[in-house]
Amino acid sequence: MLRKILKWTGGIIAVLITGVLIFYFIMHIMVKNSRDKIYNVEVRMFDIPSDSASIAAGAHIYATRGCGDCHGTDLGGKKFLDEGPIGRIYGTNLTRGKGGRPADYTDRDWLLALRHGIRKDGKPLLVMPSYEYYKMTDADLGSLIAYLKSATPRDNETAAPSLGPLGTVLSGIGQIPLIPAEKIDHAWQPGTPIAKGPTAEYGQYLSMSCTGCHKPNLKGGESPIPGGVFVRDITPSGNIGKWSEKEFIAVLRTGNTPDGRSLKNDDMPWQMTSKYSDEELTALYRYLKTL
């Protein structure tokens, strides 16, 4: 009887192991195919400025869109994720230094990356949240590119991205936003630019940067970062419905909430939002209140 039980137990374990291996193989093939896909998109070109005012505006955009969290404050690249079973991913060197942008990197290549989430060779970038940037106005995107092109060269060769078994599975089931190009409407065309000002309309434009974590409906949910805390609802059904405009601005400037909590920057990047202008924070608050 015991031998029969052990035989059945061994058979069940073997079936389970086989099932896990088959599932992982399917995930591996799915992720590999997604990473190797070649995108043929039409890049709409426009003139990239080079004047000092545009570069300064681009520096502000870089500081307030979270670019430095992955690429470093000096644009030289940095480690973004290094978790054994999940994988290792670096924000690349964006400068013209060793390990950075090659000499033949063109304005089209910048637009291909930022508007479409695609590399120079047509394959998709990994993790880079281009879906938060592709609807930026030509003026803002041009200023950002102008700033990136003006950066002081830094020598830093970052390692190629690598996914561990868990990272492969999480990517395959959509729990890690690995391929930004899959979330972008590559045929999108900009309409009339929204005028900058403390308005809900301008706040809606700025809220694109919030959608990566707080979801497109800004209702929050599971963190896009493995192991991250649950992302809060930033519509009026969440704290925005309780906070005044002054309180909202104070939270995004200091990381301290009206109810006495201190936000961790890793969970809510208030050190980034603290760099927003009063006009930008006011506009964002007024838009969120309309939802």
Automatic annotation (TrEMBL):
Specify the superkingdom: Bacteria
Q: Where are the transmembrane segments?
A: 12-31
Keyword list (alphabetical) reads: Heme, Iron, Membrane, Metal-binding, Transmembrane, Transmembrane helix
Keyword flag Transmembrane: yes
Specify the Cytochrome c domain's residue ranges.
Answer: 53-152, 198-291
Q: Which InterPro entries does this one have?
A: Cyt_c-like_dom (IPR009056), Cyt_c-like_dom_sf (IPR036909), Cytochrome_c-type_DH (IPR051459)
Pfam families named in the record:
Cytochrom_C
PANTHER family for the chain: BLL4482 PROTEIN, BLL4482 PROTEIN-RELATED
- This chain's protein is named C-type cytochrome
